[in-house]
């Protein structure tokens, strides 16, 4: 265990750019928003601009902000692997006729939710003083299972310097090691440069005797396994004193809480969570208190204040919790939180007026993402980096005013205003996407990362 404190550490939020094929296909079982909006017409351009505007506003407020590119979609190679043949046009047409559900899956822009890209351990917690990365296998759904290879190439392209960064293989893509990345992982600490404790939250146990009192959800599948969380912790060299493994409440999963970041969010020493977040609430908090060097600040929202229905509909707990230099925290919530009276009242009267560091709320419009089940926290991958590690990044991925302007212009050049599910078979959409992504890798200066660029 590396016990050294590293100075000049910042948490950088790497947001995923919404891709050119952003659409509403209702692919995610257990994701209430995704299922309820399936078949609606989307706006890829509006979605990408909403995401960029959120990034820009946080950068302007003084928070370190990064950008991650979308995936190559449609993934025609995946269709060919599944037996479709001929030209790209013929493959798309055949898939649209014979297996429209597969076509929708290979066109998904779900990589925008980079909280699922992987799990990160910062250098101050790792035994070799490097930042460690494991891409998530996302094996629980086909449309996300297609992401890890490109995700791994993107992470290795940006975090390339082996003196500072270490990359691990994706876990075996089997139900026993189902891994959904940082959406089920929170690092709690004092200052970012101080050693932290890693809270891994899982939905089920795959092997061995089930722990006492554990049970599985009955309506929707549990996506994260204990075994996957333990494997990632081993890859990163984390010890028992640095980790807490807690089971997500199965009733929450059945209510539509498919990831823990839909019911809890942590940053620094603060853990904001709903009463129904953990099956063993007190045991989880006690273990965190015992292992953390800094006193834990739990902020519990009872079900009487916010129902499970309101929590899932508003994505209150899928907000970003950002640390400020004066010790206060800012909560970045989706606009949907204002639309639920109980949620907005809780934010004003319980969180902002409560005895906790949350002193400000910022409301952001990310409706295009929200309709597919992804709020502000889904859209970002948090990476704590020292000044030297930030300097070692490859490419042009830390947001500046100039990069924001370039990305906004890029979206306006290449993205469609409207996209209906029937448009996914349009071969011109595939061509438009390749042109856009090729230009994007040049704009970000990350080199070739997409299958079509690698030959």
Structure notes:
About 35% of the residues lie in helices and about 15% in strands. The chain has about 450 residues and is α/β, with parallel strands linked by helices. The chain has a single domain (about 10-455), classed as L-arginine/glycine Amidinotransferase, Chain A. Strands 2-1-15 form a three-stranded mixed sheet. It is globular. Mean pLDDT is about 95; it is low at about 30-35.
How would you concisely characterize the structure shown here?
With 455 residues, this protein is of the alpha/beta class.
SSE blueprint and pairings:
Layout: E1 10-16, H1 32-36, H2 44-60, E2 65-68, H3 76-81, H4 88-98, H5 100-106, E3 118-121, E4 131-135, H6 142-145, H7 148-158, E5 165-167, E6 185-188, E7 197-202, H8 226-235, E8 243-247, H9 250-254, E9 264-267, E10 270-274, H10 281-291, E11 297-301, H11 308-314, E12 320-323, E13 329-334, H12 336-339, H13 341-352, E14 358-364, H14 367-370, E15 380-385, H15 387-391, H16 401-414, H17 427-444, H18 451-454
Parallel strand pairs: 1-2, 4-5, 7-8, 10-11, 13-14
Antiparallel strand pairs: 1-15, 3-4, 6-7, 9-10, 12-13
Helix pairs in contact: 2-16, 4-5, 16-17
């Amino acid at each position: 265990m590396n016990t050294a404190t590293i100075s000049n550490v910042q948490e950088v939020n790497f947001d995923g750019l919404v891709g050119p094929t952003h659409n509403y296909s209702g692919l995610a079982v257990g994701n209430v928003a995704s299922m309820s909006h399936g078949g609606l017409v989307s706006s890829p351009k509006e979605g990408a601009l909403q995401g960029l505007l959120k990034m820009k506003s946080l950068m302007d407020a003084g928070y370190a902000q990064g950008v991650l590119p979308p995936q190559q979609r449609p993934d025609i190679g995946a269709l060919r692997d599944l037996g479709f043949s001929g030209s790209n046009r013929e493959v798309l047409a055949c898939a649209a006729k014979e297996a429209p559900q597969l076509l929708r899956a290979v066109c998904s822009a779900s990589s925008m939710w980079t909280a699922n890209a992987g799990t990160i351990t910062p250098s101050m917690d790792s035994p070799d003083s490097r930042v460690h990365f494991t891409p998530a296998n996302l094996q629980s759904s086909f449309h996300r299972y297609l992401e890890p290879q490109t995700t791994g190439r993107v992470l290795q392209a940006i975090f390339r310097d082996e003196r500072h960064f270490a990359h691990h293989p994706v876990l075996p893509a089997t139900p026993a090691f189902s891994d959904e990345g940082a959406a089920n992982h929170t690092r709690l600490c004092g200052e970012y440069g101080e050693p932290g404790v890693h809270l891994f939250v899982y939905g089920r146990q795959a092997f061995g005797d089930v722990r006492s009192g554990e049970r599985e959800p009955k309506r929707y599948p549990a996506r994260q396994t204990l075994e996957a969380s333990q494997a990632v912790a081993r890859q990163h060299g984390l010890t028992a004193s640095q980790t807490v493994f807690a089971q997500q409440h199965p009733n929450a999963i059945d209510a539509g809480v498919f990831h823990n970041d839909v019911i809890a969010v942590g940053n620094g020493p603060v853990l904001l969570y709903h009463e129904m977040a953990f099956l063993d609430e007190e045991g989880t908090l006690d273990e965190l208190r015992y292992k953390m060097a800094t006193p834990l600040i739990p902020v519990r929202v009872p079900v009487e204040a916010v129902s499970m229905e309101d929590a899932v509909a508003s994505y209150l707990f899928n907000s970003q919790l950002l640390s400020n230099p004066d010790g206060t925290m800012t909560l970045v919530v989706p606009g949907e939180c204002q639309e639920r009276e109980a949620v907005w009242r809780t934010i004003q009267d319980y969180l902002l007026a409560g005895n906790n560091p949350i002193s400000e709320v910022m409301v952001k419009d990310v409706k295009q993402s929200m309709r597919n089940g992804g709020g502000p926290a889904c859209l970002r991958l948090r990476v704590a980096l020292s000044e030297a590690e930030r300097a070692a990044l490859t490419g042009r991925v830390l947001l500046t005013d100039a990069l924001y302007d370039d990305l906004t212009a890029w979206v306006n050049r290449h993205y469609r205003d409207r996209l209906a599910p029937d448009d996914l078979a349009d071969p011109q959409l595939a061509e438009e996407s390749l042109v856009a992504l090729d230009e994007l890798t040049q704009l970000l200066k990350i080199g070739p990362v997409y299958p079509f660029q690698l030959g």
